Amino acid sequence: MLALDFSFLTPAVISGYVVKGFIFSLQLTLIAMLGGVVLGTLLALMRLSGRPWLVMPAAGYVNTMRSIPLVMVILWFFLLIPLVIGRPLGAEISAIITFTLFEAAYYSEIMRAGIQSISRGQVAAGYALGMSYRQTMGLIVLPQAFRNMLPVLLTQTIILFQDTSLVYAIGAYDLLKGFEIAGKNFNRPVETYLVAAVLYFAISFSLSLLVKKLQQRIAIVR
Amino acid sequence: MPMIEMKNVSKWYGTFQVLAECSTQVEKGEVIVVCGPSGSGKSTLIKCVNGLEPFQQGEILVNDISVGDPKTNLPKLRARVGMVFQHFELFPHMTITENLSIAQIKVLGRSRDEATERGLKLLERVGLKEQAAKHPGQLSGGQQQRVAIARALSMDPICMLFDEPTSALDPEMINEVLDVMVELAQEGMTMMVVTHEMGFARKVAHRVVFMDQGRIVEDDAKEAFFGSPRSERAQQFLSKILHH
User: Fold this and answer.
1) Could you tell me which of B69, B104, B142, B216 has the fewest CB atoms within 10 Å of its CB?
2) A30 in a domain, yes or no?
């Protein structure tokens, strides 16, 4: 039987090691979500534009990103950028940029499905009222696509939150890293990894329950 | 100068020809009804008028502006041409008031107050003033289509296009929509209407255009069309839809 001892995890230890990492994990999740959705929507519009010079680069980008393991993208970006710009980028900044670029590929597939779920008649109605492409998309199509896809977008964000733990590869200080360091310092790695797992589970599971609630509410409005 | 003039319009989907050398015109204040069997190209034809569908040959002039000319500012032209769709196409994420005002604000540059006032006035005209705060999904099909007509009118169109406006409606709702259209016609609105409602055609149409297999087979004054259509195809069609 394992002799587990959690007594070292005092509020002082938590706030000293874990809170900083937790805040970064949240920051990373939120920025990558917002940036990813914006960039992903642009990629989706490019792919649906019907113009080869927009479709091909967007499709190439999305398919490439979706075919490479995230941890490799994180590593390569972290290692290559200093060679390109001539100076190292902090692990945290590097992680934020990488996640935004990577998640954009996944969000773009969701937004593409969302845009395609809106009937062509809605687009025709926008045009028939004299709206430009930009107005028709911005006022008519995207708000509806976004609303239809909100549960899926949020589910993807929960996955994103879990994936932020992969920044361990470049040593960024996130939630997991906080627990890891605390575990090393107090020589209690099993306990800290256990608590970390429970925390990731609690956050992700309660968020997915929220998404389920939201889904039902949207269904009723429709 | 006619309000709408089509000259030898042809259109293909790949190698399949959907419109063949279609020519007709709609004078200012005139109401023309376009009918024909399904797949005859009538919906495609009306969508070419405001450039929702491109066409490869021929010319369409609306108020003397060429629709097919790449230099034409299509959004500007479409803003003046009202269109009503078979499936209403109200914007489901907006209230009825927002549906009526959004294009006035974003396209015509009217103030929110002005656009709302104009929208509500038109909503009252189609008898739906009480529904202003609702969303389209809360209205019946007939009510939605009347809102769609009001939305098109809110742009102060120079002419109106109707693409099978009653085909998606339950029978008991057809008349409430047709009544609004008859009133519009009697007020002198220039209208091009794709419909099978021959009662509407008899009541207000000036001319009837009959299409078959992408061609305009008949283009006659209403009296002549209902009296004795020249083509056999139109005779068959009429006997089918008038005696069922």
Assistant:
1) B69
2) yes
Whether residue A163 contacts residue A25, with contact meaning beta carbons closer than 8 Å, is answered with no
Residue pair A37/A217 in contact (Cβ under 8 Å)? The answer is no
pLDDT(B244) > 70: no
Q: For residue A51, is it within any domain?
A: yes
User: Which chain B residues are within 8 Å of A128, Cβ to Cβ?
Assistant: 50, 52, 78, 81-83, 85, 152
Q: Say if residue B167 is exposed, middle or buried (CB neighbours under 10 Å; 0-12, 13-18, 19+).
A: middle
Range of the domain at A96: 24-175
C-alpha to C-alpha distance for B244 and B73, rounded to whole angstroms: 45
Q: Read off the pLDDT of each residue in B162-174 and give the average, rounded to a whole number.
A: 93
Please tell me whether the overall predicted TM-score, pTM, comes out greater than 0.80 for this model.
yes
The pair phi, psi for residue B8, each rounded to 5°, is 50, 50
| Model confidence pLDDT, tens digit, residues A108-137 | 999 999 999 999 999 999 999 999 999 999
Predicted confidence (pLDDT) at residue B102 exceeds the cutoff of 80:
yes
Read off the CATH number of the domain in which A73 is found: 1.10.3720.10
Determine whether the interchain pair A130/B103 forms a contact, defined as Cβ–Cβ distance below 8 Å.
Answer: yes
The mean of the pLDDT values for chain A is 92
Q: What is the tally of structural domains in chain A?
A: 1
What's the distance, CA B195 to chain centroid? Answer: 9
Q: Is B29 left (phi over 0), alpha (psi -120 to 50) or beta?
A: left
Nearest to B16 by CA among B213, B210, B194: B213
Interface contact flag, B79 A124, Cβ < 8 Å: no
**Mean of per-residue pLDDT scores for chain B:** 93
